[in-house]
Amino acid sequence: xxxxxxxxxxxxxxxxxxxxxxxxxxxxxxxxxxxxxxxxxxxxxxxxxxxxxxxxxxxxxxxxxxxxxxxxxxxxxxxxxxxxxxxxxxxxxxxxxxxxxxxxxxxxxxxxxxxxxxxxxxxxxxxxxxxxxxxxxxxxxxxxxxxxxxxxxxxxxxxxxxxxxxxxxxxxxxxxxxxxxxxxxxxxxxxxxxxxxxxxxxxxxxxxxxxxxxxxxxxxxxxxxxxxxxxxxxxxxxxxxxxxxxxxxxxxxxxxxxxxxxxxxxxxxxxxxxxxxxxxxxxxxxxxxxxxxxxxxxxxxxxxxxxxxxxxxxxxxxxxxxxxxxxx
Length: 328
Ligand code: SF4
Description:
Blueprint: H1 5-15, H2 23-31, H3 34-48, E1 53-63, H4 92-104, E2 109-114, H5 121-136, E3 140-144, H6 150-159, E4 163-165, H7 175-178, H8 184-196, E5 200-202, E6 205-207, H9 213-224, E7 232-237, H10 254-267, E8 272-275, H11 284-292, E9 297-299, E10 303-304, E11 307-308, H12 312-322, E12 325-326
Parallel strand pairs: 1-2, 1-9, 1-12, 2-3, 3-4, 4-5, 6-7, 7-8, 8-9
Antiparallel strand pairs: 10-11
Helix pairs in contact: 1-3, 2-9, 3-10, 4-5, 5-6, 6-8, 9-10
The structure holds iron/sulfur cluster (SF4).
Residues 67, 69, 71, 74, 76-77, 115, 146 line the site of iron/sulfur cluster.
């Protein structure tokens, strides 16, 4: 079936890269009938990406637990009794062994996460060595280490870092309900340092934390209003971990999650949208809807920092069933 002329015009209008999306406009996307929203998101997706390809990343916790921050969703905060013990920074050899395994399992990007408020310069030196070595294996590199100064971001760039992950987590209005140990502006400043250093930005958020739809709209609007859209936009479904303040939270309706993915795809059409945490509890059908709505990246491997993720075999079966292949 071909598109009607006015639909084509709407779609090409939507395909321009815009940084001035209003909350009203994004709210109108969320309000669309579900098939219409998914259709629009998929149509835009096809203008920038091969809809049969999914980018595969692997995430390794290189320094687990003992974090002084109070992010209400996080099992690595030292403030919550979650059974996650504080560990030291991993040794370079051990990180390299994990990176080799990730590469042979099909990952194109290797992400290293450390539970720090911000790295000390000595710690950063070690991470820079890791980045250099992982890069030497022919993998793209990504790190998530907390807040960075401008100088630290430049050091990571010199070491060869391709991406830095620093999420906005939620809307500016809801943020204070989730984190009190740093402010939204701190996050925006780290993103600016990363961008200024010439590192690609990976930035998204978490839904299902008790926020309203208006907050989800606010989060997407803030991401889409960044001076450059993040190259990678992870959308996470809250993983309710025992011991964290959000452990007993009710589950977000999966269709609302898909709508959030679609809104990210439509407003940031060139970005890779990552179906991130929360996949372990997600049905294959919900994940398929997320791919239809424009998600085109997943984390591969049985662990996401400290929480579960589908086993590689399960993901391979799902990708085969859907006819999806890894993005080269
Ligand atoms: S999300 Fe990051 S900064 Fe927040 S408590 Fe967890 S490890 Fe620390």
